[in-house]
Design brief:
The protein is of the alpha+beta class. The chain contains 16 helices and 26 strands. Helix 1 (about 5-10) packs across helix 2 (about 10-20) and helix 8 runs parallel beside helix 10.
């Protein structure tokens, strides 16, 4: 990314960092640059008297390190313009034992969002924070720095896929009841770009379900411009359930596709029409700028000389000697376009060589298709290989595990009528004759063509990732994107046998629908069962241990040196703000095994 692009996306950050000024002296730098000299020079008491400010979008924190943390809010003023607010960080919830404090800018050029990188903190410490303007106080947030040295236990709550118009954020509300979280991990699709009715499922089309919050969605259209993306972020942050979880623990986030547009890749998106909706570059940059304004992430780094054209969001977090958390970008940095033709997708695997190469996995110009890109792959390999922690946890967007074409012809879990219904949907989605093609692939144990957007759609990159996982002591992959819950033992076939290489778990959507809105009337347990039995026919492939394709919820990842425990908690509805919740599944993996050992 050029310096000019940097200025456009992150004007305030560019002004400070290019001057070589430390974060601690940001305010002094801006005054010297003439940006806020007249404002800060004004009598503070007079400014407070002439301006009203509210903190309607709550507070949050993120990107914790051992000695620092990002604090975030949005300060809204009816008078508009630029102004400053006060922030305080304390060791107690009443904000009486102040550890650090200061003033921070609320600039109209950044949608009046405020982001502070507080440094000089103690490792493994819980802090409380708030913002203020005069006598107006924000809510109090709780945050925590990364621990160092010996660490016995860490707990993450893991989320993805929240479509506001589809339902109430009951999943966020349920997780916000916890007081034991070290961090909230969000694996993407934090917002969706669609307007009301823009995300159609068979269930919605048939009137089986409704978009119960469509009237609340802002703006009431698909978002394309910077103003649109900012308005949508503000719309989401107005939700009280999201605000409650945002204030409860630090967030560590990555984007997926819907933060910009459906099925994003490096040079475009499936849900973007070049020309009619402007240029992809302008839309992408608008989405990214709003994302960095509204999310509690440290302002981005740029991979000089790497050829990457978006800010670098992949990064790592060390929790003492217990775990290294590695967050990847499988979406924006280097991904080549997805293959949409089932015939071409299946051809990737039909032409594979005996030594594990995929000659058809190339772009039109003959270059090999990429998912992470060379720079990120090298970085990931180094993070895994050098980790001395017991666990290596990899947070990313899409499923890695092998997803076979469902063998509908031979399953006994469905009636003939249900098989016909599913085959009809396949033809409807992929074109006439697709169901017959899927059946032929299933009979051979081939991949599900519907999964071309996942790791399975990039077989060369997936094979390299598998070899990289071999360098890790105890890898655990976290995935989002699919709206469904998954758990799989990952395997790598070699000339001398099948090697276990780790486990993967997928978190269900917050509100985004699963297969229950696609295969309407088909028993959810049957859908999950078919997927599991289809994969079990080839024991050399990854083996699905658990799936739930019909409920919304989140994962708790509970980590000790003795095991990683995964718990799936579901809510009974997202169509009403009144709900119940239950933890329905728990799996464990022990160090050295690289497969699940306990099922509850």
């Amino acid at each position: 990314m050029t310096d000019r692009q940097n200025d456009v996306l992150f004007p305030l950050f560019a002004q400070v960092t290019q001057a070589g000024v430390s974060r601690r002296n940001v305010l002094r730098s801006l005054m010297a640059a003439g940006i806020i000299g007249s404002l800060v020079g004004r009598d503070a008491e007079a400014q407070t008297a002439s301006r009203t400010v509210t903190f309607d979008h709550g507070v949050t924190s993120g990107d914790p390190l051992a000695d620092r943390i990002i604090l975030w809010t949005r300060a809204t003023s009816a008078q508009g313009g630029d102004f400053y607010v006060t922030w305080e960080l304390a060791s107690d919830a009443n904000i009486t034992q102040i550890v650090a404090s200061g003033v921070a800018l609320s600039l109209a050029s950044r949608d009046n969002t405020v982001k502070v990188d507080v440094t000089g903190l103690r490792p493994g410490s819980t802090y409380y924070y708030r913002f203020s303007f005069g006598s107006t106080l924000s809510t109090v947030g709780r945050t925590k720095t990364l621990p160092e040295g010996a660490v016995s236990n860490v707990k993450f709550a893991v989320f993805s896929c929240a479509t506001l118009q589809k339902g109430y954020f009951n999943v966020y509300a349920e997780a916000a009841k916890r007081d034991d979280l070290d961090a909230v991990l969000h694996l993407g699709d934090y917002i969706y770009e669609y307007g009301p009715g823009g995300y159609v499922t068979p269930a919605l089309a048939a009137g089986v379900v409704k978009e119960v919050r469509a009237a609340e969605l802002q703006p009431q259209k698909e978002i394309i411009t910077l103003a649109d993306y900012r308005t949508r972020h503000a719309n989401y942050r107005s939700d009280r359930n999201l605000q409650a979880l945002a204030a409860k623990a630090p967030w560590i986030v990555v984007w997926d596709d819907h933060e910009s547009a459906n099925d994003t890749y490096r040079a475009g998106a499936d849900n973007h029409t070049e020309g009619k909706e402007g240029t992809w570059t302008d839309r992408r940059d608008a989405a990214l700028r709003a994302y960095f304004e509204w999310m509690p992430v440290r302002e981005p780094l740029f991979a000089a000389g790497s050829g990457e054209t978006v800010p670098r969001l992949y990064r790592a977090f060390d929790y003492g000697n217990l775990l290294r958390l590695v967050m990847l970008d499988t979406r924006m940095t280097s991904r080549d376009k997805q293959i949409t033709s089932p015939t071409q997708f299946i051809g990737l695997y039909q032409t594979a060589t005996a030594d594990g190469r995929f000659p058809a996995d190339v772009n039109a110009d003959g270059t090999q298709r990429q998912l992470l890109g060379t720079t990120q792959e090298v970085w990931l390999g180094d993070r895994l290989k050098t980790s001395q922690q017991t666990w290596q946890v990899i947070g990313q967007q899409i499923l890695y595990q092998w997803q076979p074409a469902p063998d509908l012809a031979n399953t006994k879990l469905l009636t003939d009528a249900q098989k016909a219904q599913i085959n009809g949907l396949i033809d409807q989605i992929f074109g006439a004759g697709a169901a017959q093609q899927f059946a032929a692939v299933a009979a051979l144990g081939g991949p599900n063509p519907e999964t071309s957007d996942s790791w399975v759609g990039y077989p060369s990159a997936r094979a390299r990732f598998a070899r990289t996982l071999l360098q890790a002591k105890n890898p655990v992959i976290l995935a989002g994107d699919t709206h469904n819950a998954w758990a799989a033992d990952l395997r790598l076939p070699t000339a001398t046998g099948v090697l276990p290489i780790g486990v993967e778990v997928g978190t269900p959507g917050v509100t985004s629908p699963g297969y229950e809105e696609i295969f309407v009337g088909v028993p959810p347990l049957a859908v999950a069962g078919i997927i599991q039995e289809s994969g079990a026919r080839n024991q050399a492939n990854d083996q699905l241990v658990y799936a739930d394709t019909s409920q919304r919820g989140y994962m708790l990842v509970d980590i000790t040196h003795e095991r990683v425990a995964i718990e799936w908690t579901y809510v009974n509805t997202v169509f009403s703000p009144t709900y119940t919740a239950s933890m329905q599944k728990r799996l464990e993996v022990k160090p050295g095994q690289k497969k699940f050992s306990t099922t509850v």
